Amino acid sequence: MKFFIDTANLSQIKEAHELGVLDGVTTNPSLMAKEGITGHDNIINHYKAICEITDGDVSAEVIATTFDEMVAEGEALAALHPQIVVKLPMIKDGIKAAKYFSDKGIKTNVTLVFSAGQALLAAKAGATYVSPFLGRLDDISTDGLNLIQEIRLIYDNYGYETQILAASVRHAMHIVNCAKIGADVMTGPLSAMTALLKHPLTDNGLAQFLADHAAAQKA
Ligand code: E4P
Asked: What is the CB neighbour count within 10 angstroms for residue 192?
């Protein structure tokens, strides 16, 4: 399973990259705003800076909501860097735009997916990635993992190549469960990735090994 980091924070992207486990980055307008990235030129430069850190795909979301505007904005984003993936909302014009970009060989990520039917449409439009939002479904007492399982079944039934990008991942067990279910990619915060490192028996075991080694040197 690929690991994408879901942030526009450059230092966190660098840290995940240096850990050696980063396969790509997803951003959205809220994440860009959180980092204080405003204005056309700053936004463009920020996407370029992200592409300098990672070798993987970088999802850049359009703000437009009509087909013509999405095409114009998406083409400009895709022209920035070969790693840019045009992120499109799961609405009628977003699906039309996904088909347009797919026919042109430009990668897309259809976002804000909350049902298997939406994921089926995204695959038929030739999206590179589909982003079901696991955490936001869990937030409203709906089983987000079940949605990912349904999408996996549908895509496998027909051999759709669209990659299931489990989004809105919040914690370590989301990552483990996405891997068990067969998501192609997960995108989440750095904290969820580093939480995978933790086990008290690892820490206790290492402390014991080092103590035994130190004692043996003194003997
Ligand atoms: C997906 O690409 C989104 O950026 C993201 O995963 C949303 O996560 P959130 O529900 O934690 O905001």
From this structure: 21
Using the predicted structure, report yes or no on whether residue 219 has a pLDDT greater than 90: no
Which ligand 1 atom is the nearest neighbour of the CA of 170?
A: 11
CATH 3.40.50.720, applies to 2-218 = no
Which whole number is the average pLDDT over 195-203?
A: 97
What distances in angstroms separate CA 162 from CA 50, 123, 138, one per listed residue? Answer: 24, 5, 23
Q: What is the distance between the alpha carbons of residues 183 and 114, in angstroms, rounded to a whole number? A: 15
Is 187's C-beta closer than 6 angstroms to any atom of ligand 1?
yes
CA of 167 to the centre of ligand 1 (A): 6
Cα 112 to Cα 84: distance, rounded to the nearest angstrom? 18
Closest CA to 170 of 116, 133, 217: 133
Angle between helices 10-19 and 40-53 (to 10 degrees): 10
For the entire predicted model, the pTM comes to: 0.96
What residues does each domain of the chain span?
2-218
Distance CA 8, CA 118 (A): 26
Look up the ipTM and state it: 0.96
Whose Cα sits closest to atom 5 in ligand 1?
168
Nearest atom in ligand 1 to the alpha carbon of residue 109 is 2
Assign 59 to helix, strand or coil. Answer: strand
